Automatic annotation (TrEMBL):
EC number: 2.7.7.27
Enzyme class: transferase
Coiled-coil intervals, chain numbering: none
Residues at the site labelled Could play a key role in the communication between the regulatory and the substrate sites: Q60, W99
Name of the encoding gene: glgC
Annotated GO MF terms: ATP binding; glucose-1-phosphate adenylyltransferase activity
Pathway where this protein functions: Glycan biosynthesis; glycogen biosynthesis
Occurrences of domain Glucose-1-phosphate adenylyltransferase/Bifunctional protein GlmU-like C-terminal hexapeptide (ranges): 289-362
Binding site for alpha-D-glucose 1-phosphate: Y100, G165, E180, K181, S191
Record-given protein name: Glucose-1-phosphate adenylyltransferase
Stored Pfam families: Hexapep_GlmU, NTP_transferase
Amino acid sequence: MLKKEGIAMILAGGQGTRLKALTENNAKPGVPFGGKYRIIDFALSNCSNSGIDTIGVLTQYQPHVLTTHIGIGTPWDLDRNNGGVSVLPPHMKQDGGYWYMGTADAIYQNIQYVDTFDPEYIIILSGDHIYKMDYAKMVKFHKEEEAAATIAVIDVSIDEASRFGIMNTNEDGTIYEFEEKPEHPKSTNASMGIYVFDWKLLRKYLIDDAKDKNSNHDFGQNIIPKFLSNGLKLMAYPFSGYWKDVGTIDSYWQANMDLLDPNNELNIHDKKWTIYSVNPNKPPQYIGTTAKIKNSLLVEGCTVFGTVKNSILFPGVHIGKNSIIEDSVIMANSKIGDNVIVRKSIIANDVTIRKNSVVGNADEITVVGEYSDVKSNSVVK
């Protein structure tokens, strides 16, 4: 048995249907973001920067991209013999097998994996949020408070509170009630989907929950309410800083645009908290003599001959002559021909937009799915 004080489990099997074409062939945590990352890179990098070297990534929907991207964990310094990163899809057991039925069931099905490291604490994370956080500080808080469970919360506006699970707390931060997307919220402490549990205690509750045929096998709906009803101490861990659930096209687009604000709270240029990823083997970017670029992010392998404003270009993107790209996200290896206008759009990987076409408008976000071929002189809205 490999003894670890704490390990992390990242829930990364979400389908992300509200991201539409972006998740047709990819799980939500595997969606590209910010020019050179995938969404899951933030949770993995947070773990690495927090000194957590043992991580299970629980996959389910369209796992191929995520599995390939994570590999043996080298970019995050997780290619280790004692711990490291492990991809954990649903699997067959002696009594059969089935898909993960909920967040709690996903951990339950991997009890044997967790027990291998005999941890005192387990950190449960969502793999589909954009943020930077030191989990070590949260674990320290959990230990000092001698809590059975600690839940990270972020203050949201009262208008937004109905979209989240809300933790109602006493003045000392203890949680006395959990409300799932309440119509009339009593507080604005929104759950971030980040939990620290005492493993031995959680293990018992997971086993009991698995036997309950009426359970949804979910942390928010079942495990946390059961902790509360049994009088266990639950603490809210307040987080301040940038955090965004990029579960919709609007929030995904906005999170990308936030990176273009030089004063944004996320600050991906922070050398003290690097966001690591798999870097493609691409040549340097080339900016042609006819190019005009303003307030944009361009990475390796881009070739630009047109105008790029307030946009993000992923590796291998080509922008043709006299083309105008504004307020848009252009993903890897997409080719924009000459005399094309792209406004407020998300162009997925390996898209071709041929000459004299117009994509998008200033009123709403247009999405063009992977491998699409937009013919010359087309209008896409």
